[in-house]
Amino acid sequence: MSDEEFGGGDDDAARPRPRKAPTAFRTISEVADDLQIPQHVLRFWETKFPQLKPLKRGGGRRYYRPEDIALLRRISDLLYTQGYTIKGVQRLLRDGGLEEAGGMPDLSAEETDREDGDEAAVVALREALDALERLAHELRALASRN
User: Fold this and answer.
1) pLDDT, tens digit, for every residue of 58-96?
2) How far apart are CA 106 and CA 66, in angstroms?
3) Which parts of the chain are beta strand (E)?
4) Kind of pairing, strands 62-64 and 26-27?
5) 3-state DSSP: the chain helix, strand, coil percent, rounded to 5?
6) How confident is the model at residue 40 (pLDDT cuts 50, 70, 90)?
7) pTM here?
8) More confident residue, 38 or 104
9) CB neighbourhood size of 89 (10 A)
10) CA 66, CA 3: separation in Å to the nearest integer?
């Protein structure tokens, strides 16, 4: 048997990986690549969101189910696009409000750790969030070109 039969050929890196079925389990590297989120962030989220429970095999290797990936996508959207804090997303998960969470995040005094609800600060935060969303969109577009 040759090396190529065991996947040891020199051109393995050049060949694209075959597509997995939508119901297939994914490794942390596959999920990280797909969601464009570093692996250490996914591991950190597991500590903050007990609803995330990938299967762990020998050596601690993680395998994410499709429902885990869907939850990670939603968490990513809420944190990076909609501007929620980790505490805000935890609250949504706890209260079962993930499906309803859309649009602008609630910038209440509790969420922003502000006690006085200063309107000018809220406006500045919304403008900063809009600018960050535009930058994130541009970065995703640039990353998809490579």
Assistant:
1) 888 999 999 999 999 999 999 999 999 999 999 998 887
2) 29
3) 26-27, 55-56, 62-64
4) antiparallel
5) 55, 5, 40
6) very high
7) 0.56
8) 38
9) 23
10) 33
